[in-house]
Structures are given as structure tokens and as C-alpha cells.
């Protein structure tokens, strides 16, 4: 499909988003950033990485291979959220009140997670402004298949080697990530017939300065992970690449199961986040690793609210919101939708709203409502 250049989209596409009403004072309270809560979230996630890495190293040194594999599975589960999830919230700049701490943790998590900060910053700005309007947002291009295929599941519970980026902003498995990053270090993007590469090409034309930064960052990623490999070869400490470079692709199961629920099967081209985004309730551990992004509708509706306040945001607007799904319920819903879409490719699920829900705002919106934090690069501010 041919799309308009993104500079034209910015001129012509206007989405009048409906946002559930919330008093301005309450929104300002919920939008307040806290270094204390940020340290618990970002510092706590990094601490889990260090603890599981220490356990992997300990059992490797003792050659206790059963315990080593269990520790490596836990380490991979923790580290997989360094790709996309932790950099997502830090990229919004809403986690720490102290801005330089946001940047430090953003670069640290992205370095370990092979994450392209700059391409994603451009992409995600469009994603928030034009959510699931494909002319202006192809970060998640519907329909998405909630796959449970056997070989795919085998990779997600062991090492994700060969899954390819197709319709979601992702570099895929280990092999495809290394290849994509190597090419990106020389400014080369994959074939345009692959949807995510078509999207990247459009972003690079639209934001050439961010493209140049992406090239430089890709080179840093290659130098960092290449340096770890060289150290392992010289010292024989082969556990180091497992802890750092390979860990984001080990035990990707939880990252996939929670992350796939955000938009899969929902509606395109609607000005109501309640129809295009899905929220869930998760247990405290899953919620922590996912940086509270199970409250994804609330995040899209008020993207300037820090992740640790999204549950409180839901409570403030609950009468106007769909009932959050459970994780199992979300997957049942997605699989049901996918079965219908195989027979009718145009089918999209219309999320039911409570009887108390509204669809038209009668009060004047607060200017803070449309904030996406500090996400947008200079060329999109």
C-alpha cells in the first residue's frame, strides 16, 4: 500500500481524540513525577538484572548446570523487558523527576537490550498522535496474529533466534537483531515489502537527524556487544555474552504474552482509545516487569502520566472505561478475534463500554491532557 509522506500526514490528518474526563487538579497530581518511585521501578528492575546475572555466573562457575539453566531462564525473563518496555517509559521522560536520570537509565537499558532509541522515539511519537491510523502510525500494523505456534513457543521459552520483524516495531530474534543492527550501523534498512521496514524508511525521510543519530547509536550497540564477545574470547568467560548480549532473547515468553495484548484485534481509524487499546489487570510481579503498561488504554489517553500512577488514573476514570481484561481473558479475546479475521480479514473487535460511559466531552480539555512527556524528537515538537 502507498502512504502519504509523513510531513503531509501532519498537515492533513487531524484526530480529535476522546479522553475520559478528569478534573485538571487530579490530572496534574497524577502527572507529577517522583524520583523515589522512579528509583523503585528503574533501580529495582536493574537490581533484578544484577541479582539474576550473579546467580547465572555463580552456578556457571560451579558447573551446576540444572541450577544454571533455571537462573538463566529467570535472567532472560527479567532482561527481555529491557527491549522496548523499559526504554518505552523512560523515552517518554516521565519516570524520574530528575531529567538526566531518565536519560542515563534510558541509554543503559537500551544498550543492553539492543534497542534503537532514536528510530523508536520518532515512531512512538507518531504512534501516540495517530494511534492505529495507518497513514500516521504503522508501529503496530493490523491485523496482528496472536500466535501460539509450537516452534515459536519453543523459541520464546528457550532462545529466540530467528523470529523476524514483520508488522510490529521490533528487530525480532537474536540473529535478525544482529543483522538489522549491523545494517543500521551503515544506514541500511531492510526491504520495503516488510511493513516495519517500510515504516522505518518513511520515518528516516521525515526525520533525517534522528536517522543519523540512529546510525551512530547502532554503531555503539555493535561496539558494546562486540566488545563483550571479544572479552569472552580472550578470557574464556563465555557467561558474559549470555548475561548481556544474548539475555534479551532468552525466555521471551512473558514479554510476548503481556505485550501482544496492547492493540491486537482492536479497531483502526477510530478517535477513541477505548476501542483501539486494551488494558489488563496483572499480578504485582508481572506488572513491575512490564512497567505498569498493562494500563495501556490509560497510558494512551494520558501519556504524560508516569507509569507508576496509571492504576490510580484508571480508578479516577473507571466509570468511563471498559472493564480491564485478565491476561488469560485478553488472550482468549485475541484468539477469538483472530479466528474471525481468518474468515473475514476486515473484522475488528468493538470493545463494549459500560452504561456509564460517554463518547462526547462537554467540558474544555486541559492543555496537559495531550502531553506525551518528553518523547517527541526536536523535529516533531
What is shown here, in short?
It is built from 18 helices and 2 strands. The protein is mostly helical. The model has no long low-confidence stretch (mean pLDDT 96).
Secondary structure elements and pairings:
Elements: H1 6-12, H2 24-30, H3 35-62, H4 65-79, H5 85-92, H6 99-112, H7 117-129, H8 150-157, H9 174-184, H10 195-206, H11 208-235, H12 239-246, H13 253-259, H14 273-276, E1 280-281, H15 284-289, H16 296-301, H17 310-317, E2 325-326, H18 327-343
Parallel strand pairs: 1-2
Helix pairs in contact: 3-4, 5-6, 7-11, 9-11, 10-11, 11-12
Please characterize this protein's 3D structure.
This protein has 18 helices and two strands. A two-stranded parallel sheet has the order 1-2. With 381 residues, the chain is mainly α. The mean pLDDT is 96. The protein is globular and about 65 Å long.
Judged by helices, strands and strand pairing, the structural class is mainly alpha
Q: List the helices and strands in order.
A: HHHHHHHHHHHHHHEHHHEH
Q: Mean pLDDT, rounded to whole units?
A: 96
Number of helices: 18
How many DSSP-defined strands?
2
Question: How is the largest sheet built, in terms of strand order?
Answer: 1-2
Largest sheet: 2 strands, parallel
As residue ranges, the low-confidence spans are: none
Amino acid at each position: 500500500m502507498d502512504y502519504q509522506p509523513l510531513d503531509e500526514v501532519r498537515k492533513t490528518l487531524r484526530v480529535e481524540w476522546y479522553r475520559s474526563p478528569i478534573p485538571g487538579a487530579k490530572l496534574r497530581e497524577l502527572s507529577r513525577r517522583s524520583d523515589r518511585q522512579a528509583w523503585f521501578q528503574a533501580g529495582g528492575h536493574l537490581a533484578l538484572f544484577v541479582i539474576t546475572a550473579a546467580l547465572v555466573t555463580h552456578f556457571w562457575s560451579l558447573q551446576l548446570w540444572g541450577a544454571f539453566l533455571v537462573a538463566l531462564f529467570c535472567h532472560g525473563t527479567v532482561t527481555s523487558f529491557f527491549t522496548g518496555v523499559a526504554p518505552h517509559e523512560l523515552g517518554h521522560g516521565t519516570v524520574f523527576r530528575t531529567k538526566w536520570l531518565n536519560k542515563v537509565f534510558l541509554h543503559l537499558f537500551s544498550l543492553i537490550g539492543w534497542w534503537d532509541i532514536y528510530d523508536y522515539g520518532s515512531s512512538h511519537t507518531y504512534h501516540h498522535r495517530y494511534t492505529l491510523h495507518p497513514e500516521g502510525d504503522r508501529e503496530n500494523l493490523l491485523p496482528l496474529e496472536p500466535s501460539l505456534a509450537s516452534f515459536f513457543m519453543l523459541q520464546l521459552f528457550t532462545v529466540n533466534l530467528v523470529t523476524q520483524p514483520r508488522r510490529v516495531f521490533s528487530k525480532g530474534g537474536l540473529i535478525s537483531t544482529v543483522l538489522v543492527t549491523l545494517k543500521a550501523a551503515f544506514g541500511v534498512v531492510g526491504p520495503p515489502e516488510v511493513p516495519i521496514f517500510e515504516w522505518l524508511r518513511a520515518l528516516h525521510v521525515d526525520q533525517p537527524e534522528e536517522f543519523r543519530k540512529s546510525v551512530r547509536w547502532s554503531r555503539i550497540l555493535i561496539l558494546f556487544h562486540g566488545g563483550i564477545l571479544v572479552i569472552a574470547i580472550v578470557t574464556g568467560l563465555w557467561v558474559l555474552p549470555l548475561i548481556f548480549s544474548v539475555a534479551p532473547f532468552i525466555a521471551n515468553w512473558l514479554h510476548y504474552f503481556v505485550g501482544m495484548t496492547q492493540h491486537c484485534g482492536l479497531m483502526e481509524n477510530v478517535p477513541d482509545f477505548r476501542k483501539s487499546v486494551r488494558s489488563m489487570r496483572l499480578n504485582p510481579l508481572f506488572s513491575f516487569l512490564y512497567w505498569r503498561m498493562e494500563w495501556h488504554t490509560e497510558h494512551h489517553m494520558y501519556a504524560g502520566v508516569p507509569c507508576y500512577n496509571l492504576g490510580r488514573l484508571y480508578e479516577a476514570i473507571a466509570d468511563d472505561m471498559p472493564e480491564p481484561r485478565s491476561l488469560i481473558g485478553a488472550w482468549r479475546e485475541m484468539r477469538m478475534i483472530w479466528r474471525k479475521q481468518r474468515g473475514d480479514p476486515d473484522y475488528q473487535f468493538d470493545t463494549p463500554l459500560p452504561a456509564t460511559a460517554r463518547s462526547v466531552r462537554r467540558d474544555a480539555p486541559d492543555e496537559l491532557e495531550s502531553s506525551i512527556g518528553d518523547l517527541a524528537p526536536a523535529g516533531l515538537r
